[in-house]
Specification:
Blueprint: E1 2-4, E2 14-17, E3 21-24, E4 34-36, E5 47-55, E6 68-76, E7 87-92, E8 95-96, E9 104-106, E10 115-121, E11 137-138, E12 142-143, E13 153-154, H1 163-172, H2 180-190, H3 202-205, E14 221-228, E15 233-238, E16 244-245, H4 249-253, E17 262-263
Antiparallel strand pairs: 1-4, 2-3, 5-6, 6-9, 7-8, 7-10, 10-11, 10-12, 13-17, 14-15, 15-16
């Protein structure tokens, strides 16, 4: 309700009241109190345009796991109201990512090989503007490169384990032992080798993984979950060559100790 109190008026004078209400008064005595209810005038909702995702870690490059993404957009409001409290929600493969509600987002392992979008909801000050919330606008999707090489793995410690202990250890981390093929692929992807059998120590020198006498290691072999058919045991892969080692059930359960790299 708008109120004019003790306002002297004359016959035929038009008084402009707040909220663009115009009123022509009949002859009234000076000093009268004038009271009337007015309806707020609705404006136009704010708008977000040109919404896109920028790779802050490597501008112009496709994102990889660990990159910082930053949303860019243009805010406008036809009423001239200022931006206040615009909100954001990042999505992975079309589903909202829990807690990812800032204007920036650091890509996670779960994002590898999937698409990212971000929704922008433009807002103005709700206490002084109406409407104060615009329509959510989504960015075009960007695809995060699939995880490859050592990024797929939990960095191994220097402890050697039997196969049974190694298997339980990986499970306790919410991971698993890799297959023979996965370890061979790792060796080729993560080092300068173009195939297995080419010797180098880059798993230590480039990535800090334990090898025999290097990076705290005392063995080149790493356990896999691939069985050595006919022996009852499991295969190991030497990460200085990519070659396969065959182990019998007796050696696996009898105390052979190899390094362990758990794959997520």
């Amino acid at each position: 309700m708008q109120r004019l109190k003790n306002y002297p008026v004359r016959h035929g004078v038009t008084i402009g009241l707040p909220l663009v209400l115009l009123l022509t008064l009949s002859p009234l005595a000076s000093g009268v109190e004038l009271m009337m209810t007015t309806t707020p005038v609705k404006g136009v909702a704010p708008i977000a345009t040109n919404v896109l995702i920028n790779n802050q870690s490597s501008p112009g490059s496709d994102p990889i796991v660990g990159n910082v993404m930053q949303v860019g957009y243009t805010f406008s409001d036809a009423d001239g109201d200022g931006e206040s409290g615009t909100t954001f929600q990042w999505h992975r493969a079309g589903s909202a990512i829990g807690g990812a509600t800032a204007s920036s987002y650091t890509t996670q392992n779960a994002d590898g090989g999937t698409s990212l979008t971000v929704g922008v909801t433009p807002r103005t000050d709700a206490s002084t503007t109406d409407p104060s919330v615009g329509v959510v606008v989504f960015s075009p999707a960007v695809t995060v490169a699939p995880l490859r090489g050592v990024a797929l793995y939990i960095h191994p410690d220097t402890q050697r384990r039997t196969w049974g202990v190694a298997n339980s250890y990986c499970q306790s981390l919410g991971a698993r032992l890799p297959s023979e093929i996965e370890l061979k692929t790792l060796y080729v992807d993560a080092t300068s080798a173009t195939g297995v059998g080419q010797s180098n120590s880059e798993m230590c020198s480039s990535h800090g993984w334990p090898l025999d006498g290097q990076c705290g290691g005392s063995e080149n072999n790493y356990w896999s979950d691939t069985q050595s058919y006919g022996t009852g045991g499991y295969r190991s892969i030497a990460l200085d060559t990519g070659n396969t080692g065959l182990n019998s059930a007796e050696s696996v359960n009898g105390g052979v100790l190899y390094h362990v790299a758990c794959i997520r």
